[in-house]
Each structure stands twice: as structure tokens, then as C-alpha cells.
Design a protein that fits this description.
globular, 403 residues, 43% helix, two-stranded antiparallel ribbon, binds flavin mononucleotide, alpha/beta, 2 domains, eight-stranded parallel β-sheet, TIM Barrel
Amino acid sequence: MTHRRAFLQFLAGSPLLAGAGWIPDVLAQTPTPTERAFARATASAAEALDVFDMQTVASRTIPPAHWGYMMSGVDGETTLRANEQAYAEYQLRVRRFVDVSRIDLGVELFGTKYNSPIVISPVGGQRSFHVDGELAVARAAKTRGQLQILSTSTSTGVEQVIEARGAPVWFQLYTTTRPDITVKLVKRAEAAGCPVVAVTVDRAAGRNMETATRFLRIDNRVCTSCHGPTGSDRGGRPMFDGIDMEEGTDMTSPSLTWDFVKRLKDMTKMKVLIKGLETREDAVLALKHGADGIIVSNHGGRAQDTGRGTLEALVEIVPAVRGRVPVIVDGGVRRGSDVLKALALGANAVGIGRPYIWGLGAFGEAGVDRVLAILNAELRIAMGGVGARTLKEITPVAIMRRK
Ligand SMILES: Cc1cc2nc3c(=O)[nH]c(=O)nc-3n(C[C@H](O)[C@H](O)[C@H](O)COP(=O)(O)O)c2cc1C
């Protein structure tokens, strides 16, 4: 009886159940061991066992409209699902009797060493998931010594984020429709100390986010109190401070073509990466136009629907690049074993988007830190399983495609 009372008291205070008043009643009637274990598993960041525990907590803590926006894909969300499913198509080929007592996850990108090949992909407006937003993410990235890429749509200025990170972050560029704004954004990121700019090219054609729209309808908060009178999100976008964003100025430009890469390179000393490539043809064009690296990405299934999983795109891009520049892939990575699979298929590093946002929304900095720790630990175990002690020892024979 005492245990039962303590359990109910615990449930009442659990972030997992915040706003879900009916659940304690249900559990009080039928608190099965599984239900108890599930509710108990995520009372704190430290107790999350995988990134999905974080997702569960975050689904309660992040407001519905923001949750829907973050989880959304486009149209029927087949690309979103394809990203995750692509990893399930590969299996590990385990090896035995290799001394895996020491495993090193370290990676070097453009002369800088990071403790893990898991990269924090750019996600806009992180203060809409937790009050500490990008700063919490930067602090966790600092603790873990991992690479953070900051969105143009950041809700905290690049200078403050670099200060919190204690080291440079990479800057993700949305060109907007106006070249003068592009120049200002690039100059500001460079002046702040960013060594790399990654221009995102996968959203030129517009998009249709049905899940986001549905969740918006069930959120009864007043959006304009944060987003400004037109519902635009520019009020909280400090990279545009001092820039006159006239009506009709969009984040992405539908008219850009490959010659933009040279213009961008002429604009800056930063290394120039292209984020959002999915075919060998575009990878070849990127190199031809002077790109210093490629991020294989479909924006987490948020750009075009009925596309392929990014892992499938990686498979055709890696042979076209032939090791000339670094290739990073993101989309659908939810386990350390997924990271290993992407590395085995030739990626130099692997990005995550939603998983660290779940950690952020659930527990702020501690949640992001825990997500990174979980994925690193899983990667370490997967590497040990295939007998790889360093990233270089992860070769294509570490995996095989399901038959
Ligand atoms: C809520 C949200 C916001 C995003 N914002 C940006 C952005 O501002 N710039 C960008 O290049 N990519 C953005 N992305 C895409 C991510 O950088 C990344 O490609 C994607 O999230 C990876 O897929 P995953 O979420 O399955 O890990 C965003 C993704 C999400 C989910």
C-alpha cells in the first residue's frame, strides 16, 4: 500500500505525465509492472535509456504547435519514414576475438578534432522547445566535445552560442531571397569565428507540412505573442537583427543555381559545404563548383515527399566523391548502430536532428547531454561488436544489406 501511494505521488510529479491528468487514474486501477517501468524510466535525463524515452517526455513538455512542427514531415511523410527504414535494411556483421578494450570515437573534420562522429545538425528556433534553446545545446556539445551546426533561424545569436560552446560552431546558411542579406549573414558568421558555412539547398521548392498544420489547430495559445503580428517567426531570429526583412522576403530562394557556390566562396574564407544533396549528379556538380564538403540530407523528410532515405542517397554519393571532400549524412539516425552503418557506407560523420531536440525539450541541457551520451555509448558497443576500434576500422564489410 505504501509503495502504491509513493508510486502515485511519483506519477503526479513526473514530467512524463505533466498535462495528462487521466493517466494516474488509469494506472491506479491497473498499474502493471510494464506500465510502472515505463513511467519510471524517464523521471530524469539520467534515467532515459534510449532516445525514444526522451521523445516520450518531450511529447508532454513541448507545446503542441511546436511539437507538431518539429515532428512533421511533408505530405504523406513517406520520406520521413524512409529515412529510418533505410537503416533497418542493413545488418551488422559481427566479428569475434578482436581486442576491443579500447575504442576511440574521435574524428577530425577540417583540421579540428571532435570526440565523436555524431554531429548536431542545424535546427531552427530551439527556444521554442526549451527556454535555454541553442545555449543548452552548445553547453552539452561542449561537455561532449561534439560538433554543433547552428541554423540561420537560431533563436540565439551565433556569438552567444560560440561563447557557450567554448569553441567555434559551424553556420548553416539560408540564403533568403535577397543577396544583400546573404552577404550580411555570411560576414557575421565569419566574424563570430565560424570556420565552415553549410548552405542548405533542399527547400527551394516550398513544402506542405500537414502534421504541423494539424497540431497548430489544437494549440490554443496565442501565437502572435511570440511570433509577431503576421504569425511570422522573425521576431525571435537574432541573425536578422538590424536587417530590414521586407514583406515577401523568404528564407530560401527558388532562383539560385550552381554558380551561387562560387559567389559564396568569393564572399568568405570559411569552408563551404552544401547541405541537402541526394544524388551522384549533384555531388559531382558540387565538387566541380568548388564545394569543400557535402551534407547528404533531405531535411529530415521535411523537403520533398516520396523520396529515398538519405542512407540510400549516401550509397550513390560516396563513390562519386571518392574521398575528395568530407561527406556527412543526416536523417533518421536513432541508434548508435545507425551511425556505424552510415560510417561503414563511407560517411565521415553523421548528423542528428530530432533526437537531441527531444532531449532539449525534455530536460534542457541535461537532456541533450544524455542523448549524446546514449548515442555515443551505443556506437561504442556497435563498434566493439564488429571489431572496430577506430572510425577508420569501420569498413563496408562491417555491415551487409538484408537479403
Ligand atoms: C524542427 C526542425 C527544424 C530544422 N531546421 C533546420 C534549419 O534551420 N536548417 C537546416 O539546414 N536544417 C534544418 N532542419 C533539418 C536538420 O538539420 C536535419 O537535416 C534533420 O533534422 C535530420 O533528420 P532527423 O531529424 O531525422 O535526425 C530542421 C529539422 C527539424 C526537425
